[in-house]
Amino acid sequence: MKPVVVRGLEIGVGMPKICVSIMGKTKAEIIEETKIALATDADLLEWRVDFCELNHATDLIDILGILREMLHERPLLFTLRTLREGGCKEIAPLQYVQILQRAIESRCVDIVDVEIFVDVYDSWKTVKELDIVPRNNMHQYTNTIIAQAHKHNVKVLGSNHNFKGTSPMEEIVLRLLEMKNIGVDIGKIAVMPKSKKDVLTLLNATLEMSHRGMNIPIVTMAMGDYGKISRICGEFFGSAVTFAAVREESAPGQIKVDVLKEMLAQMHVVL
After folding, report:
1. What residues are annotated to the active site?
2. Which of 6, 155, 190, 213 could form a disulfide with 185 if both were Cys (CB 3.0 to 4.6 A apart)?
């Protein structure tokens, strides 16, 4: 697998990289949370813009400029999580594209999170069921964002989040392959397990993808208490990034960053 290198950080080799999320509602809260996050061992920071109360486009660019200056050479992941995939805002696909494009063109972000089924109303249908949608329609918006990101040398983290449950292993594999096929640089899947077996399903899918030689880093996690183990054992199964909490969780089941760092280090020694 070829690692993705962002500001000297190699994603896809060695220990999983730790990402922490900035979730402030106001500029002041965002700056304060960023200061705290930068004092941790996090490898990269994610700005969850869906938590923020932006008034207009200039606010977005202003905050991105502040974050870029504060982070120096630490990578910044830009994420606008939609309501149907666990975010805080209901947002139309066209508006979603426009906001991501502004972030990309700001030259302040290093990676942009793109929900690969943002074009599809019912993203919980299986990939095979979604094949009835014409291919040029299924990823029309997604393809636009990916092309714009790569034009500006911004990496794309393709993502898909299922807060309703855990799909079968074959479906998780198909979704990751779909991400690779449309040209993302990193593929991410998150599921909500209802049992320990569901966690094993996610881990088996991760292992299957690492054996297939997908050639791009993948990021997988099972959310909630059942899924905490998936945030620790990524190096063993093939997940390249894990998300941690500084103060508040951006997703259920996140572990505090200092605790997670020690766990990952111990796992790395064993491996």
Report:
1. 161, 188
2. 155
Total Cβ atoms within 10 A of residue 69: 9
Q: Show the 3-state SS of the chain.
A: CCCEEECCEEECCCCCEEEEEECCCCHHHHHHHHHHHHCCCCCEEEEEHHHCCCCCHHHHHHHHHHHHHHHCCCCEEEECCEHHHCCCECCCHHHHHHHHHHHHHCCCCCEEEEECCCCCCCCCCCHHHHCCCCHHHHCHHHHHHHHHHHHCCCEEEEEEEECCCCCCHHHHHHHHHHHHHCCCCEEEEEECCCCHHHHHHHHHHHHHHHHHCCCCCEEEEECCCHHHHHHCCHHHHCECEEEEECCCCCCCCCEEHHHHHHHHHHHHHHC
User: pLDDT (tens digit, 9 = 90+) per residue, 127-180?
Assistant: 665 554 444 556 889 999 999 999 999 999 999 999 999 999 999 999 999 999
CA dist 262 and 247 (Å) reads: 17
